[in-house]
Amino acid sequence: MSSRAPILQAALPAEPSHFFLITQADLVYENDILRNPGSIKPWIEYYSFKRSTSSSILSQAYILERAVKALPRSYKLWKLYLELRTSHLVPVPEDPKNRRNMNPALHVIEYRRVNALFEESLVLLNKMPRIWEMFLKFLMRQPLVTYTRRTFDRALRALPLTQHHRIWTLYKPFSSSAAGKTLHVVWRRYVQVRPEDTEEYIELLVDLGLYTEAVQEYIKILDNPRFKSKAAKGPFTLWMEMLDLCIDHAKKVEASEESGIDVDGIVRSGLERFGDQRGLLWVALARYWINKGAYEKARDIFEEGIRTVMTVRDFTMVFDAYAEAEEALIGLKMEEAARRHSKNVLDEDSDIDLDIRMSRFEFLMDRRPFLVNDVLLRQNPNNVNEWQKRIALWGDNSYEVDNTYASALSTIDPRKATAKLHELWINYAKFFEDRGDLRKAREIMDTAVKVRFRSVADLAEIWVSWAELEMRDERFDRAFEIMARATKAPKRSTVDYFDDDLPPQQRVHKSWKLWSFYVDIVEANSSLAETRKIYDRIFELRIATPQTVHNYADLLEEKGYYEDCFRVYERGLDLFSYPVAFELWNNYLTKAMDHLSNMERLRDLFEQAIDGCPPRFAKQLYIMYGALEEDRGLTRTAMRIYDRALDAVGDEDRHDMFGYYLTKMASNFGLASTRAIYEHALEVLPDKEAKDMGMRYAEMERRLGEIDRARLIFGHTSQFADPRLDPDFWRKWEGFEIAHGNEDTYKEMLRVKRSVQAQYNTDINYIASEALARSQQNQQNQQNSVAEAPQGFVAASTAPKVVEDAPTSNPDEIDVD
């Protein structure tokens, strides 16, 4: 024992009063410390041994106190020591046995000693965030606000930026508990390094009543294009939140150059930035001035809003808010007036002010239709219909109607007009005409004909309306002059009517509507010679229509100029091809047959008409040609014409042409002469039409008593008649055999029927058509049976069927009885 005394003495602390804390069992650890003075392992093992033996807190603290003095830069030793000292004062969540919770107000000295111990550790370990966190958490339990705040600031200055989030995690709750200016200052510093949390800072400022600063923060994040809201709010949402804040606290928000808050400027910049929300922004700005108490300024804002918005939706929003604000203000004034009258207090100025406000409100409501019209015209100033509506709104106010017409015609771009701009000019002229000012009306029309309209038709309408104006004034000579001026053109005009690159004034002389009106008024009010000049000019310009040809020809026919009438039709035929030429030839030939007696000329006209005539128009011309020969020429010639028609007409008209030819041949030369026509028909007509023609042929032979020829014709025609689809043909043949045949001929008919049916059974086209026809027939029968069944009757197709044996029958069996 005595031999180890020097070693023990060397390991003991300088204070002899602490020797009692070292026991005999501790000497092993004391010797390890002496052997390894620069290692922390012996100290940690020593401390662990003390904890495991449930030594007193004093002995544990004595070991760690010596350790941190021996190794002051050891983070582990300081952490163990500080945890031990703090656990003696506050509960440790990790240690359920530790229930200590010493009140810092009652044990000030103990807390100060631990605070001093933390400060001592931070002298060399100020870069250790865990030490700072322990210290700050410990300080937050003490009523030392200023000291704690300064310690937080020291921690932020000592630690690198990457470790600041650990400090801010504690600093924010501390500032919230401290409240007041501390909270404001802490968060203002925090958002400098974490701008993404600015929205929380703004909410905090609003809760603190710092509305000016809150608006300034809104301005900062709105000016920052990189800012991304944690709540996924868009710029407009943030913008409206800022405006709502300004509106709700209008009198508390310091709007000045020093604060950088200009609500009016902010809203106006928003009007440019958020064009689709202008109505909402105008209402917000007006509400701001109302809350500020500047009612006249708010009224000016409302007026500016309803005069600048571009959509009806925005206008409705601003106007409704305007009307509601006026009603509310009038209501307040009326309540004040009622209180004054109840107290018999007279205030003429207040009563006059109330009357003025009510008059303003009525005027506002009266202006609503005009303001809506203004919005639509701002959207499209070239909207002719809206200008017409605005004119109608003024009613009998001549002065405003005149101004509106003038504004409309000076504003609208003729090339971009959305409707009939010419009607606006015409109505403007008629406005002065109705008031007897024809001079002004003529000036308007003279200006209108110089406008470059979108189409020639619009310009033509102007000229026609001008001429009608003169005719209503019974100035027919002036109307003729106007139309002559409108249709003035070079002798040989090469202008393309549809060339939009040319102004309408250069193309209007080819307007059919213009010439049609011109010729109508000349025909009604002038001589035939003048009328013919105009018609001839129409043909020279090659703008005549089929109606022009008919009108000109009818006019000449009425006056007895038949040859001139025929020349008009010939000129028309030079201009038009089929199908228009068919109508011209039809009228031409009709008039020629009425007024010409020379058959050779008429034949020549018909030959010209049918030469090159499309098949679908040939039927009528050939029938007219044949009728002419029957009436004035030779019947055989007529028959030859009908025979030519059989090859000239279209397939859809050939069957009818054969019928017409047969009728004419039979009526002129007897039934027997039609045999060749029937035979030709059976050769060229389709199967269905050939079947009908064969039945007619057989009937004709039967009437002539040629029974064998009729039977042969039935036999030849039977190849076109499927017994299942054409039962009428076989019934007629059967009736014919019953009436004129015998058993052998009847059997031959049945044999032919079976042969034809077998032939159709092998034809896939007929099989498909038969199946389709049968399914349609069955469906029709089923519908009829359901429709005719009494209520409660169950159709046989839906009920169980009983299959019974039925005798086999032959449909071709002869009933010998």
Question: What would you say this structure looks like, in words?
Answer:
This protein is mainly α and 817 residues long. It has a domain at 262-379. Helix content is 71%, strand content 0%. The radius of gyration is 57 Å and the shape is elongated. Mean pLDDT is 81; it is low at 1-16, 785-809 and 811-817.
Q: What's a quick, concise take on this entry?
A:
Residues 414-787 form the Pre-mRNA-splicing factor Syf1/CRNKL1-like C-terminal HAT-repeats domain. It contains 40 helices and no strands.
Radius of gyration: 57 Å
Please give the largest β-sheet.
none
* Structural class designation: mainly alpha
Shape: elongated
How many strand units? 0
Give the end-to-end Cα distance, rounded to a whole number of Å.
158 Å
Strand content: under 5%
Low-pLDDT runs of 5+ residues are 1-16, 785-809, 811-817
Whole-number mean pLDDT: 81
**Helix content bin:** over 70%
Notable traits:
71% helix; disordered C terminus; 817 residues; mainly alpha
